[in-house]
Each structure stands twice: as structure tokens, then as C-alpha cells.
Amino acid sequence: MSIHRHLPGKRMSEAVIVNGLIYTVQVPESGQGDARAQTAETLALVDKVLAELGSDKTRIIEATIFMPDLNEFDQMNEAWDAWVAEGHAPVRCTVGAKLAHPDWKLEIRIVAAV
User: Fold this and answer.
1) 103 to each of 40, 41, 67, 99, 107, how far by Cα in Å?
2) 3-state secondary structure of 58
3) Which of 4, 46, 76, 111 could in theory staple to 62 by disulfide, Cβ–Cβ 3.0 to 4.6 A?
């Protein structure tokens, strides 16, 4: 089994590919705006990483969204619904969680096929 680490750093890699699956976690870079804006920003990063690895949002299998304030769930869903590819919605769950940075409204974990 081969493991490819995309843009590895000391603490973590931007993504990892194993057995034809891409694993990545993305957070908003700016930490600015409401949950809708941060969701759109983070999903654009997901698009970028998947494209760099020869995939796209139509090949996402699973998404886990972590949010510190589930009262912002509807705002997140507005951006998600505008972004997700018609007919290609992945399995998804949203979890209330304290995040590493106080300005982040969400963190998104993605598993996608190459």
C-alpha cells in the first residue's frame, strides 16, 4: 500500500492519499465573516486541494463538519447547499466541537476518491 502525503509539514499534511482515497481537513484561512462566508471560503480550499490531487467535489464520499456554535448551522448549510454538486451529495455529519482557533466558525474533514 502506498501513502502519498500532499504538502507535508512538520505537524500535518495538507492531504493524504491512500488506497485511492484523499483525506483532507480544511479551515477558513481568514477567520473573518459569518458562518456562511467562512463555509464558502473553506469549501473553496477543498476545491483547490482536490483539483491539485486530480479529483473534485463530485468525488467526495464523506464530509464531517465541526462547528463550535450549532446555532449557525443554517448559515453553514446555505453555503454548503450552493456549493455541493447536484446529484453528488456525500454522506455528511455536523458535530458541535470546540475548535483550535476562536475565530473559526467551522472545520471540514473530507474523504474523496481520486
Assistant:
1) 15, 14, 11, 9, 11
2) helix
3) 111
Task: Tell me which residue of 77, 69, 76, 74 sits closest to 98, measured CA to CA.
Answer: 69
The per-residue pLDDT string of the chain (114 residues; one tens digit each, 9 = 90 and over) reads: 899 999 999 999 999 999 999 999 999 999 999 999 999 999 999 999 999 999 999 999 999 999 999 999 999 999 999 999 999 999 999 999 999 999 999 999 999 999
Distance, CA of 80 to CA of 42 (rounded, Å): 10
Question: Rounded distance, CA 100 to CA 107, Å?
Answer: 9
Q: How far apart are the first and last CA of the chain?
A: 15
Spatial separation of the C-alpha atoms in residues 86 and 83, rounded to whole Å: 9
pTM of the model: 0.95
